[in-house]
Amino acid sequence: MKRILRLCLIGIFMALPTWLMAVETKNLLSELTQTKLSKMPAVLEQLEAQGDESLLPVFRAWLGGDLYYTRADSHLVVKTKVAGETVYMGVFSQEVDAELGSKQVRKIKVNNKLRGLLRGTIARLQLTSKQPELRESAVRELLADLDRDTFTTLEALYPQETHSSVQEMMQTALSLYTAKDPKQSQSARLAAIDYLSASLENDVRNGLVQLSQDGNAVIAAASNKALDRINQSVERYAFVDQLFFGLSLGSVLLLASIGLAITFGVMGVINMAHGEMIMLGAYTTYVVQLIMPNYIDYSIWVAIPAAFLVSGLMGVLIERLVICRLHGRPLETLLATFGISLILQQLVRTIFSPLNRQVSTPSWMSGSWEINPVLSLTLNRLYILAFALLVFIALVLILKKSSLGLNVRAVSQNRSMAKAMGVKTEWVDAMTFGLGSGIAGIAGVALSQLTNVGPNLGQAYIIDSFMVVVFGGVGNLLGALVAAFTLGIANKFLEPTTGAVLAAIFVLVFIILFIQKRPKGLFPQKGRAAE
Amino acid sequence: MKIKTLASAIALTSATLIAFPSLAADTIKVGVLHSLSGTMAISETTLKDTVLMMVEEQNKKGGLLGKKLEAVVVDPASNWPLFAEKARELLTEEEVDVIFGCWTSVSRKSVLPVIEELNGLMFYPVQYEGEESSKNVFYTGAAPNQQAIPAVNYLKDELEVERWVLAGTDYVYPRTTNKILEAYLKDMGVAEEDIMINYTPFGHSDWQSIVSDIKKFGSAGKKTAVVSTINGDANVPFYKELGNQGISSEDIPVVAFSVGEEELSGLDTAPLVGHLAAWNYFQSVETDENEEFITQWQAFTGNPDRVTNDPMEATFIGFNMWANAVTEAGTTDVDAVEQAMIGQETPNLTGGTAVMNKNHHLSKPVLIGEIQDDGQFETVWETDGVVPGDAWSDFLPGSKDLIADWTDPLKCGNYNTETKMCSGQNY
Q: Transmembrane residues, as ranges (chain A) (predicted)?
């Protein structure tokens, strides 16, 4: 009720400008519905000249491709989603017109060229916006094509500006224009260039590159010096960026292999179906999202325990039905689990079709954390990195502190002795395998955010998982952690010079050589347990 | 010596078998050689269904030469050597009169020797890297000059792109296409340092550092674009990463040659809006023929949301041309149909007519479209008229002087205009 009231209020408020709007603007807006794509820029220019901030909703909707017009009377509407349903509402009135469906409206087209122009238009209109972030992004948008008019507008706005980051951005824009303007005095230009040398904005760098070719030798030299300074810090940030990529790949490897480190490392079972446990986890995420389509943002929190249960139960089932009957026969276990992996893949193909399934990314996981113009860390990778470490810690705690962990360690060190002490080894085997598989399922939830969810998902990660476990030392969780991050970082630092294909080969060759030297991996198990 | 005689005897018997297939059968058999399982099943099952639909339609019209058509479907399971075996099975055991099939270039290359040995007839409906013209194959997909070259021209002329990233999956089609594009760009005066070439394995999923490299490459003050021959589902994480790193289609547009409506239907298109694709057909093109085709297809599959795509149109054109050629020749005999095929005209679904040229490639219009948030393309540019497919690229040193002409007196797939020689190899 409250919400409806609020919507009404907004509606009335937004409707005001429509009455006051000049007839000319109205004509231009209706022209939008008839114009060809190639003639649109001219109309847009006129609209900007005529209109004011009241047109912002039109421009924003247009930029997002959500601007439509009714077939019947060509009035503009915006497509939005209310509670998961697509509806159309008046662009100024903000009132939902329930009678409009996709058949009654047509889209106002937009292409890349128009999108670029629209961004500029929106930026110019937003210079006086009330929110500092909007003002800042508006000035940044304008850096790319500064002209005399923008310069004078910015100059007039600058003294009134109170927010420091917007001030800085404005100062950058003013300096950029001053530096490029040959009519300015040389000292003013040099001072401007000096100011610019602290900026990391891409447009500033482009401007300085042009200036370094300037006819005025003093200006050119100063620009070159400023560029050097900028490039130095850019390179520093590039290194951080690459390190983050490496850590991120490492976290994916860690998630994929940590379950295997338990089943293969602790139990000694070569589980070829490990990849399929990951795949089951990813499909669980898909199913969870199918069940709760309106709560995608929370779906991950449901999917994590669900995936753990699905993959874990499947793991227990496999252990009870197949693996426990093949105890102590590694070759048969390998073949049997390989067979199981094929069965699971085909099962998924039959149930979900061979096509990849679409898993949506929750809004809080998409986008990136922009630290500065050259360094931004993508949020989904950041969350997955943190998540991988959390899972790792939880697993170490379970193995070290819980009674299940104690039993697992006892059985893996000396099965018959543990049995003699009254440990139910069969039960422990099943639980361990279930735990390892469940963790693989959780990895699947994380991977569904990064890669395609399809029947072949597991196969892509099984080799990497074995590589990590063998490299880290069988039976050692810490080894898996170190190995995963080492391989991830090595891969990402090799990639820019060698290309993705060769980098993977180099890493593989390195591991083979390493295993020749130290057959038991980075952290070999010591003592009698190793025998 | 003995083996050789035996082999020639077998070849002779199979040749006689193939020569009069219609005597034995009272139906005309149409072979369908598309993978129904394995990695390529995603794309190829659609084409199998298209052929089945076309056969059904033709039978409604009374078949061909007074006989009903009968589709023979086999499954080569995305397994390249199996393609050759299945082709042999179709030609010798099933004695089909024509084959519609293959998707990847490697599968086509594996079928070629079989189809030439047994003198079969095949229609290949997918865009490919060119550098081939076989007497027994008709190429209804785009050659590089009907897709890649116009796309590069569009980027250069309309979007004023000066720096180029050629990104592709590591196999024959992207490598050859990129070789052609690189030579073409250099011919136009693009400097070496303004071209970046990158290859990734099939199904690559960790695009972080490559996208970051592209971003860096694109921040040199010149307009940059990515020409993508990335194949299959590796595209999804690629576009996702572009979106995550904040690269929009206005900053660095990506033009793709392997992303169509079918591929888009499986993914969230929000981060892709504004990126481009070059094809000879888009579902969104509004013509009567296209509308009829889409309605027919959605009715045939029983799914009102099923999309159509470019290789489907290529299959549609190929099938119609073959049906016309058989009617004209009055027989399904391969040699007669092959000659009747040259010069055949059939309406395109996007308007205009497609013509089969002497080099077994089509003349077709080229369209460039921007991806929309509903998974369809908005045509932003198209060629005036049609572009004839060029079997041998003019931009590669080895193939510059080669032409293909399957009419008298040349009858050669790789005639060298310099040395006036046909190299003798059949493909």
A: 243-270, 277-296, 302-322, 382-399, 466-490, 496-515
